Xanthine dehydrogenase subunit XdhA
Amino acid sequence: MEVGRSIPRVDGADKVTGRAKYTDDLCPRPVLEAAVLHSTIANGWVKAMDISAAQALPGVVKVLTCFDVPDIQYPTPGHPWSVEKAHQDVADRKLLNRRVRIYGDDIAAVVAEDAITARRALKLIRVEYEEYPVLLEPEQAMAEGATPIHAEHPDNILAKMDLRTSISDDRFETVEQVLDSPDFFQFRGRYETQQVQHCHIENPVSFAWMEAGRIHVVTSTQIPHIVRRVIGQALGIGWGKIRVVKPYIGGGFGNKQEVLYEPLNAWLTTQVGGRCVRLDISREETFQNTRSRHPISFDVAAAVDRDGNLMARSCTAISNQGGYASHGHSIVANSVTGFRQLYLDRIGHHSTAYTVYTNRPAPGAMRGYGIPQCNFAVECMMEDIARAMELDPIAFRLKNLMPLGYVDPFNGITCHSTGLKECIQKGAQAIGWEELRARYKDQTGPVRRGVGMACFSYKTGVYPISLETASARLVLNQDGTVQLHLGATEIGQGGDTVFSQMAAEAIGIPTEDVHIVSFQDTDTAPFDTGAYASRQTYVTGKAIKKVGLEFRQKLLDYAAELFPEAKDLTISERFVTNGAGERLISLEELATTAFYSLEHSVHITAEGTNHCKENTFAFGCCFAEVEVDIPLGKVKVLRMINVHDSGRLINPALAAAQVHGGMSMGIGYALTEEMKFDPKTGRLLNGNLLDYKMPTSMDHPDLTALFVETDDPSGPFGNKALGEPPVIPVAPAIRNAVLNATGVAVNTLPLSPQKLVEEFTKGGLIGHV
Amino acid sequence: MEVGRSIPRVDGADKVTGRAKYTDDLCPRPVLEAAVLHSTIANGWVKAMDISAAQALPGVVKVLTCFDVPDIQYPTPGHPWSVEKAHQDVADRKLLNRRVRIYGDDIAAVVAEDAITARRALKLIRVEYEEYPVLLEPEQAMAEGATPIHAEHPDNILAKMDLRTSISDDRFETVEQVLDSPDFFQFRGRYETQQVQHCHIENPVSFAWMEAGRIHVVTSTQIPHIVRRVIGQALGIGWGKIRVVKPYIGGGFGNKQEVLYEPLNAWLTTQVGGRCVRLDISREETFQNTRSRHPISFDVAAAVDRDGNLMARSCTAISNQGGYASHGHSIVANSVTGFRQLYLDRIGHHSTAYTVYTNRPAPGAMRGYGIPQCNFAVECMMEDIARAMELDPIAFRLKNLMPLGYVDPFNGITCHSTGLKECIQKGAQAIGWEELRARYKDQTGPVRRGVGMACFSYKTGVYPISLETASARLVLNQDGTVQLHLGATEIGQGGDTVFSQMAAEAIGIPTEDVHIVSFQDTDTAPFDTGAYASRQTYVTGKAIKKVGLEFRQKLLDYAAELFPEAKDLTISERFVTNGAGERLISLEELATTAFYSLEHSVHITAEGTNHCKENTFAFGCCFAEVEVDIPLGKVKVLRMINVHDSGRLINPALAAAQVHGGMSMGIGYALTEEMKFDPKTGRLLNGNLLDYKMPTSMDHPDLTALFVETDDPSGPFGNKALGEPPVIPVAPAIRNAVLNATGVAVNTLPLSPQKLVEEFTKGGLIGHV
């Protein structure tokens, strides 16, 4: 069994020894360097630009402005293309923009012989603007008379959605009636999440050149095939005219599921005769000009019967989309859907969601895709209801959890397996829930402890909201080993390792005999939409299994030619054996024979597509124990345990590592991280790793990752989503632990000292000076 | 029709603008530099080596010697592997050799931080030798008491072959009886060819590093998949553990059909912790340590009836193999086979061939693979017989040519098509043969003119002597264009262009819509043995056609899903049309739909192997008009016309360019090129481009390439060999023209001034001083 083994990462040794090649390692030197000029206003127009001094600077090859770019609006998100126009992404930006929508918008670019010259030239460009008031919050942007940020949306609302389930109780006609009924306990609340950045180690970097009349781009991306397509759209050329290569990447977390600077880089090379141009985005630019996680506010209501059964809920989510549509309405739509799915409303549910343009840097995909936000809302709400009704918060949740066999009424996604109840029980036992809740009941004094938890559900991939398709290719080597060739990407998550294990399992060989082609080259790699939506082990995994079995059959068919008398051939321990378990031929000899036979030479390969029309839910929970220094507003996480049902684990050690990373990201989301803006200018105030506070190892307790393994019938190897989930329940678990410790319910993120001191003061724990 | 069009080379623009990437362009810098220590004796043993001073030099990373290398003997030639031990290549060298067999043998290597340090370190290595007498000629090596150069061959004869056809005339029992019969005109002669070098522009260069536990090698080669295999053999590791990448190369001509320094480079990286090591072979090393064309002597005899019908011939060829087996006996075997095949012996034929080890740099494959040598012998002989019998040399040849339908009695290769007679007639007419022969009949004076010609036949690929197998892969792009993915290599000959035309023809799309993946990466490229034996347009062409038709059918099948009512679907002008010629869908829309359809998403590709079990003969002839300055011994080529039957031409302009290159190479072979050795030490005396005389543009007349297009029924598109043939008939045509001008038959190559003055003196044209 290759699946289920905790083998070391196939890329591990290279990465720890510095041998692994990232985009910038592959860039030829010397190379032309590009730099981008960013606007110094957040809302307005570029009226005129004087580039004469910049163009005259020695070493400057070319200065290009928003007046020079192709008149093509293009979309940036890493979605599969849709053949239906209505389902295509919002095309709302050009390569460089005259209409400035964020502070720091891309308005010009310089290509120079070296990076210093390029940056010096930027300073020589004179810009004349027409300026409008800055709109940073949805309320400002939606207000009467606010300037439309995109002319197509005069009210600055990119999209609105209103979804009502059917009402299952004849006494009511609407959810609102249930939420007003005196028969039930009624709850209302508002929860808000903040804008945070992915903070991957490797900033976006790419280089591009022309060869054979085509544009070649090497870039740090999660989605090479989609990058190819979006460059084609942005430049208005055939997608086959573009080649994208993806080396190892230093993290993405969804930010590299968007096609940000590759189209500009591709266009720049076409403007300098095809010479190689490098575009290296700084950390500050990464904060300001790439993506982030949406701030979303949730106004929620719930009706609960006296036994603690959820009867109905409503949720109005407003998502701050910043200056560009990016993934459009998808993320807040996912958010309200996730809010609804985790718990069962016995009578009905009503969701409303808005996506609103503002002048903030545009948020996009970030690990969890709207679910960390809704999970904060729903898990705070569940805690607050339980507290108000004096129910045990775990028992209350268990009573209302999504059951096995649940089918979403809107998208049909089915709960094919669930271990969530067992996850909660396992986590509670591991942290000593009962004992801690009892111990922390009646604390006094400035430093108090508390324990909290939160659950989540998460779907696997994007079907049926969008297309799920993946291909794989296997190529036999002469020594009986195999090349595994995918369009799916290793982005630090361990994809290459689990893909190799899956291929080995399907073929029946050791994982050591599978050599994965890690870098995707869109000229030759099978097609796959890439790393996002926790889809690859599931969707690509199905393709690997399908093609692996076909490849295995080809090996056995060739063996059958050599041993026509043999029966029930199978592969075992690098040999083809017959039904009696006798070794007929080693795979090495079989391979060499197939290559070089004078009777029948064939180079055995298999390639195919799996169009995936299934989905399933992963589950899990987080338990956190905290110590709160009330006067300092300081939360110390003492212990944290995540318990996950991600189906069958392909590689338990890598799964645990993935959970650790997610928990760490969740701690930052809960306690310290927030992008802050100057309300006047719209300028990002803390767009660097000094002022933007990520948690360090000093802010972490030991992290514990536990699993409840289910065998999902829809998963290729019983597996389901694992990539994004670990981050989801951490912030509400910490918030609920702080509530448990202090009795103060903090309803906005992050739980920073500044905010906690305010909240504790309001709550009477800190006296007014 | 895409086949038959003279479209520009697909790599042309990049190559003339300097944008095309060759191996060294891709090497990361800084990089560890390797240098090889060469022996200063030609025959003997390394008894001891002191590397202490070299190892102590700052900047030296590692010094490795013939005492350190794996104890593995491996073969170097670019043949397909054979599963039968008896047919495997001779494994007669190690990575570095204690047993020194040529002057300059590889005995140690230094890896240093820079190239200057590496070369300085070489000078610090002290070597102690045991030395044997130097054996440069087969006669010396075969002499009684000569030191065995390889212990396995005490008589220094690597191989001997003796082939007799059956005798078709009851009056004789052996060919020798025919050759003694007074019934026939009897002829005896001896012809000798010299050792020459390929002199490709780009010397061998490679770099290698380790990643994911595997060895990666980028190298200038004709045969990336074979390089992979030989590295595996030389290092004793699984072939799947090696990845070879072949970029554009600056010529090969057969020298890069051998695996020369890649195994050493691969091993060196394993000895320095997998760091990237570059091994750049100098021009001098290329002359001394890589391959060359075999010097072969031919002792021939013929019996001819009075009507000019060849009755029988015999040929004893002795091939000087130098210090290493390289391609072993194959080349002289091919040589005597080619000698026999071109003309028909009505009673019988007897060939004997010897391959003899000497202490010369080892010859190997070079354009023509033994045929330029035998062609010099056979075409001189035919001329000399005609002259002696006072027959018209063209009429004499026409009477005896290989006929259509000829089947070789030993290997079964069949003449499926022949335009040789038409080639000869076309060439004779173009040069004005009759008129010139009459005009040059009775010349006197020091400067005389002459006209000569020679014919040849050449098989296409290596079947059935060896395996012929090739794979191809086609990948649909979203814009309806196609990636063509091959293991076959562009080596400057225009392969990429004609492969693209063939794929376009098979699919039914314009060649502009085929994007060839030029660089071979053995991790992902389909398998192909590579560029040699003029095989690729024939053998790989069959694979392209097979896979192209399968790919086309997949496109049509998908279209049929979309248009179930439509009939007789075909592809025309980038559209799928029905039987009535109506356009149903563009290929672009078809492709996009196939990728992104929510009903049936499939990424259309096709991949497959063609095991080629056919062969056929290409033909041609050369006509040369020369002016000979007798006192100076100087030959000036006034006009030269090659006429070729290579079947149907895929790209006539590229075919003509290929012929021009071959003619140029033939002029050097005929007149000026020869590797010269110090008989005492065995040291090569002219191993550089100053002392080794290649012809320059000043030595060339205008070259004319003409064709007689046949439609070979065995060729994928009616085509047959073209790569090597143009060089073959040039030297005998020039020699025969000199004979025509002066009456002096020069029977050894080259026709250098030194030699001609001697021959003219012997012939009485120059008086003794």
